[in-house]
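User: Hello! My lab partner asked me to get a predicted holo structure for this protein. The small molecule is magnesium ion, SMILES included with the sequence. Please write out the structure tokens.
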Amino acid sequence: MAVKTMIEAVRDGLREEMERDERVFILGEDVGPRGGVFGVTDGFSKQFGPLRVLDTPLAESVIAGASIGAAMNGMRPVAEMQFADFSHPAMDQIMNEGAKIRYRSNNDFNVPMVIRMPYGGGIHGALYHSQSVEALYGHIPGLIVVIPSNPYDAKGLLKAAIRDPDPVIFLEHKGAYRLIKGEVPDEDYTVPLGKAAIAREGSDMTAIAYGLMLHHCLKAAEEMAKEGVEVEVVDVRTISPLDRETIIESVKKTGKAIVVHEDTRTGGWGAEISASIAEAAFPYLDGPIVRVTGPDIPAMPYNHNQEAYFMPNPDKILKAMKDLAAY
Amino acid sequence: MAVKTMIEAVRDGLREEMERDERVFILGEDVGPRGGVFGVTDGFSKQFGPLRVLDTPLAESVIAGASIGAAMNGMRPVAEMQFADFSHPAMDQIMNEGAKIRYRSNNDFNVPMVIRMPYGGGIHGALYHSQSVEALYGHIPGLIVVIPSNPYDAKGLLKAAIRDPDPVIFLEHKGAYRLIKGEVPDEDYTVPLGKAAIAREGSDMTAIAYGLMLHHCLKAAEEMAKEGVEVEVVDVRTISPLDRETIIESVKKTGKAIVVHEDTRTGGWGAEISASIAEAAFPYLDGPIVRVTGPDIPAMPYNHNQEAYFMPNPDKILKAMKDLAAY
Amino acid sequence: MATTTKSELGSKVEPTNRKGRASAPKNGRQSLSTQSPTPKHQELGLSKEDLLEMYYYMLLARSLDERMWLLNRQGKAPFVISCQGHEAIQVGVVFALERGKDWFLPYYRDLAMVVTLGMTPREVMLQHFAKKADPDSGGRQMPGHYGYKRLKVVTGSSPVATQLPHATGIALASKMRNSDEVTVVSHGEGATSKGDWHESLNLAGIHKLPVLFLCQNNQYAISVPVPQQVAGESVAARGQGYGMPGVEVDGTDVLAVYEAAKEAAERARKGEGPTLIEAKTYRLTAHSSDDNDRTYRTRDEVELWRAKEPLPKFRQYLLDNGVATEQEIADIKKRIDAEVNDATDWAETQPDPDEADTLKHVYATPEERAQWR
Amino acid sequence: MATTTKSELGSKVEPTNRKGRASAPKNGRQSLSTQSPTPKHQELGLSKEDLLEMYYYMLLARSLDERMWLLNRQGKAPFVISCQGHEAIQVGVVFALERGKDWFLPYYRDLAMVVTLGMTPREVMLQHFAKKADPDSGGRQMPGHYGYKRLKVVTGSSPVATQLPHATGIALASKMRNSDEVTVVSHGEGATSKGDWHESLNLAGIHKLPVLFLCQNNQYAISVPVPQQVAGESVAARGQGYGMPGVEVDGTDVLAVYEAAKEAAERARKGEGPTLIEAKTYRLTAHSSDDNDRTYRTRDEVELWRAKEPLPKFRQYLLDNGVATEQEIADIKKRIDAEVNDATDWAETQPDPDEADTLKHVYATPEERAQWR
Ligand SMILES: Cc1ncc(C[n+]2csc(CCOP(=O)(O)OP(=O)(O)O)c2C)c(N)n1
Ligand SMILES: Cc1ncc(C[n+]2csc(CCOP(=O)(O)OP(=O)(O)O)c2C)c(N)n1
Ligand SMILES: [Mg+2]
Ligand SMILES: [Mg+2]
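Assistant: Hello! Below are the structure tokens for the protein in complex with magnesium ion.
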């Protein structure tokens, strides 16, 4: 076991999968000699050559579409969208093509493809280098959407995604890349897709989150513990298909639910989580299902004051937890 | 007052706005001499000339993007996406550009544009001529998303949309185009954006729907009335910004809520409506918040059996209403 | 997923290996109408059997197409979209490639392409009626949305030009594996306006990918004529901007198309990169059964083009060059009529997909996932 | 929204009407380096004052750019993206158009373009520090995301090439109103790979819209060099495929760029349609303050290009042709240094946007809606 950052865990996972399976290749903008703008594929071009670490033209739709084609012709493409904010031009290929090919071909064709997208803010990225996109992709049946919150999961979920027969959108929080460290085993392992995890056990309230926000929830939960309120924290891990069972089980136990995400509020993924609870755990609820999210503005501003104003943080979460506990 | 179909109401609204304001023009595929594939702009090319009823190349992104540009240069474009299913290539222009221009320019620029999109199924359109897209666009702050359920609203909301300073996604259910008829006044009028309507009053349960599904809810509500259960039916009309006040008021009164839409279930707009209720009306709830929706499959199949299996209908809604009433 | 047995689906066309063939002369671009000392097909190394097979598939596609319209008007099928006017292009191209080896990404007009690749009349009618055994999608997609794994026909959707990035990716995989398979991707001239068209040609041009971009220019995109669709002189003229030949060819002349496609396939196989072929023809029917083309084009225009259409032209060539007798041609027609009748009657009685299957195949099942390598 | 008064923002450049000017001779494409009997600028009808103004803006942009890097390294601004190496292109183009009348859609490298259009040094520093009074976005967008309504500079975003469809729509509106305003839309060569680039040139070509598509080819898209970005010989070579001239010009030669842009503007104004200009230069800095260009290009390569860069070249021209004396050039430098110092010191002390304003301007307010016509 060694302590790694998120970005090291993702890099290790990618490298090991490329060494393990020659069908795995990487394509995207600046993934080659530059090693990606965040350095995720640093050194890959040297190790695997320019064709397996393909610098593409600046064209997200064909990056996704060519990945779909290569996947249908026996390869295991891992595409990188330089920022999740730039994946919109590829939404037709991802949502209407990649997601629907197994279904529309009545199971004759499938798309074993992974699309990695750095997402999230708090890094002075402004409107177009800070967005969260999980709600948009999570709504599309046929896509698997994953957001790891720690290095262990990042590596294990990425390996599972690359080995999966269906298309996976793999979202990596930019703010967590170097901030979040953790132990990662040296031997090969995977973390199953579609399973949430209990990041902290508790009996009085359930907080549901993913990515960077999971850590803010854990901080707030420690504060609540000091006041005698034990918050159970659920790490969603796979946005879609959503592991409702784990969430519902926890809420049935605690009777109170708070959902946290960085994405804007209306129609964010918290809505689905909240609605699932309201549907399946209603008789167990002792209070409203609370959402702590980014505000309904187009995206977070560049100016640091306004960026901070946008971002959910432990204080904001703590305040909501206290109100809910007092309900 | 004359009885009109939905499609006639939309056509009249468009024509009257073009006669009223020469800055209003139409662009899209086959909107010219062909009059649109559904005949919405039938005769417009003759009346207004080819430039004001512009047949564009087959290129959704530039249809949306050029509309944004024209809107910033004093025009009032009304773009047509031939089917909502084909709007995905324009999502970058619509979500990242049109929706964000007022905000990112700190109120210096705005985009008075309307994009009309026929949506919805039950017309043998299969996976790519049947989709519902309101949840994708509804999630984007800066966009106004409208779905009329009857000819009066269709005309009044369309006029309000064209006269609005912000971008409006105007969704018209293809199955309702000729099926739904209603009285439409001859004189000029608008229906305000952002306001839901009570389509049927009731005291025992609130059903929330829009578009074609609103009519299925009304049918089911009539059946429930026979059994002594009075269902209040809310017509959402504007998906976003969502009129939570009207919805919450009704649920506070009835204590029970059922949300119906044709779109696939997970992350559909019903999730936001349900979550908003769970947040704001919790103490008033006498039962779980129920969703009746299309299943979580990529989109509805072509074969008539399977298409019918996908579509919510009055029977499915009635069954859910009975279960909720019995709760 | 097909419940129907192979034999029931009728005879398959066995993949024909044309590698041995002499390559087309660089000079040739002459049309069927002009006479030449040695008949064109001999220059191209095509046998009498080849030509009769070509004619058979062109007429088979046309006959199936006409039958589908009939069934639509009878209310037996909600939708039909046509290949009429495009047969020479589609048959010519398939004959220039290697069935069973090369990849094909057709679009909704490519009925003649898929039948030439081996989709049987019965299978065509299964997809027309959206039956459970439809090999394209089990009745899930609209007619004309082809996809047939065994024939290396890749599943397609409705959104125009979305198949081009897939073709580019398939060819990229071929290059990575040093395979000499070629990928043919087919589309109309309206599709050239899409961003996906541009991004795909650019990527294929940069990496010299083995792709044949086949633009079937039938002069309309539903109602929109070429001058409002394509800036510049032509689609073919854009090839050089992507570092690939842009070849314009008479799309009503099956041998001219064969020749152009043959050259493109050879370039691709030799690793010399992609080719853009613009085959010009005319859409003889309305865009689809949902269209009314009288709103945007005159009957005179349509009649003018009927006179130039591919089938009679090729028929005349076969007679003029002694490739076939009136009798042989009549026999082909008889055989096709029987096949189309059989296919229609048989397919109509086949079962619909089950309602409960509507929910299947969104993701791999746990079992499928366990077996996945 | 600006809380700063006009006078505080420093002197504006008044729109200059160049309509009177003689149009550029069709033969001219010669570079500053070659000497000619009559100096190039006289052929082009440019006065001494024009040239000194051009030099002033080129050097002003360069000096502001260098200062922004300094402030970034000092930790006073999180981000900088550069115009260094692009100054001749941007200044040459603006001088060929009508400030105050024509539309400009810059991209993040267009600092020299926006200052030449009238954005003052103080305003440049306001956006660099993301201050409340930043005229581009009030501190909401990253530096280099220009948008200045009064100057007809249209708000831009980060996603590459998204401004091209806007430019096409702006020009469509101009055509519909029979206005003779021209729209300039600027982008890098990497942007040419995007679907939006293609869809925009096609639409503009079909309707002969008054657009100048300005491609500033600096040979890299972050780390990706042109051969892996652009299939075919060049970007300019694609013009004809869209029915418009594709003009390649030396982007380090301000007069050559001026001449090409002048011709394009005149074509557009006369209703003869769009022009694609590919101005070739080199990106002298890393892509941005977040980039490390040593991972993908050698210092030798960079030094090689430093020798050819636009400012010394133009300076030499001014001296060789007796347009300016060493003294006059030194005075310009002194004036600029003072302006840059003033702008930095002043802007740094300006207020940040208020936290509460973060929620403003998502939609029009009820009042704004009521006033909207
Ligand atoms: C992205 C997208 N936009 C619009 C449509 C609707 N549509 C279907 S076919 C068609 C015209 C296609 O014309 P062309 O590419 O020339 O092919 P043709 O039908 O003429 O063979 C259109 C607009 C679509 N299917 N996909
Ligand atoms: C759609 C999109 N994809 C990726 C990026 C990230 N990105 C920003 S600039 C850039 C390179 C642009 O190169 P070019 O167009 O040549 O302009 P240059 O920076 O060289 O002037 C990239 C890939 C982006 N901003 N937008
Ligand atoms: Mg066509
Ligand atoms: Mg560049």
